[in-house]
Amino acid sequence: MLSRVANSIYWMNRYIERVENYARFVSVNINLSYDLPGMISEHWGLLLEATHDRDTFDKLYPEETEDKIIYFITFDSQNPNSIYNILGNARENARTVKETLPKEIWEHLNSFYLSFKQFSTNKKLDFEELPRFYENIKQQCQLFAGMIDGTLLRDEAYYFANMGKFLERADKTSRFLDIGYFNFQSVSDVKTANPQDLLVWSAVLKSVSAFNMYRQQYKSLKQENIIEFLIKDRDFPRAICHSIKKAEYAIYRISGSRPQDSYSNQAEKAITQLKHEIDFTETNEIIKYGLHKYLNDFQVKNNIIDQEIFKVYFA
Known about the structure:
By secondary structure, the chain is mainly α.
């Protein structure tokens, strides 16, 4: 496979996963604003921290308000990391490799982008309609993922697609956890919880569609259990450990090597090291080290894997 084609497929899937997760970022704060209207309104700025877009926002807007942050993350064409621009990037990557994709995938993504673009030109969206709007974005992204899984040959294109999707998913799950942590918690009291804290943490679970699956494994909402479930669970599809495991499998399938036979390039080495670190770090060690610091370290290492993939396959 040409490196140009592989790069486009990889980023097409990273972008679609990012679109879905940004929709989840906003919707979880909207849902919390209904339950904690006075308190959560002060924490919309955390979304800018989670997406690393605060500097861009500050250049464009004089003050942080709920409406401006929602518009900036979702529709703003001046924000290169808005859902509007990310979706456009995904569509452009798909357009350049249409010949390698099933027709249905291109048609769905193109239609998704055009309908979103048309919607973005309409008048201001009613706040009451926002949950349904973001739910539709998530469903469109999940339909795209289902098409990839149901129509693509299990060849290099499929594994580059999975590699991008799961690395992006692991990164964004870590950012969801960070938002939940910083809303009401400090490093010293992560084990204590009041009703407001539990409301935030349950919203974090729901934002990654994890609430029901979590309750099947744990009887009550405890922050240490939520941390363990979303970081270390090997079977939940949006847990960090599961996502890194799936990305590792895809990387090794592309090269034809196996993790048990050692790595064949630096990308494989970096992702296997990270998977083992997650496996062999206990939840109490994460809490003792500091959840925010641990998640920040993870995001740095996840970005290094992306850089190594670029050097090996795309440069």
